[in-house]
Amino acid sequence: MPESWLLPGATKDAQTITARWTPASMQLIDGVTVREVLNVPKSNGYLTELFRTSWADGNAHIDQVFQVVLEPGAISAWHTHAATTDRLFVAYGSARIVLYDGRDGSPTRGVVNEFRFGTIRPALVTVPPRVWHGVQNSGSGPMILMNLVDRAYDYEDPDHWRIASDSPAIPFRLV
After folding, report:
1. Residue 111 to residue 101: CA distance in whole angstroms
2. Which one of 4, 7, 101, 156 has the largest count of C-beta atoms within 10 Å of its C-beta?
3. Tens digit of pLDDT for each residue in 145-158?
4. Which H/E stretch holds residue 78?
């Protein structure tokens, strides 16, 4: 018999986060790393580290750094690289970063990871080659995404593959 104070249709929330503030029951895609960092308050604002070579797990090389500005609600998805490793950092605003492992032979093939990071909760998300990824500005103002890649963009032969953001090949919708 339902509790008398509950209204019809009420459901209990499932656990979504652990006491250590990591997502509950999320299996990270093989090769993906997430490094949450802290904002350091200063007298004139705050400082946030984006990258240290000691965080790189053997691949500390950075060949190019660029930023993408997305307007509220804007989506950049889906894309992947055959050989390039992305390191994504939301420098300003709020974003959903979603990854999908479609790699044959991967122990996490078919797994989707969804993260919400930004100015208030900064993190560096490392995306290995051949993992599909998309980003959506989930805030009310512009969002700045920094990408620290290990291979600079090749203008003559881009290592960049795309499918539509609503492709049925990926079991997730950025809406």
Report:
1. 6
2. 101
3. 999 999 999 999 99
4. strand 75-80
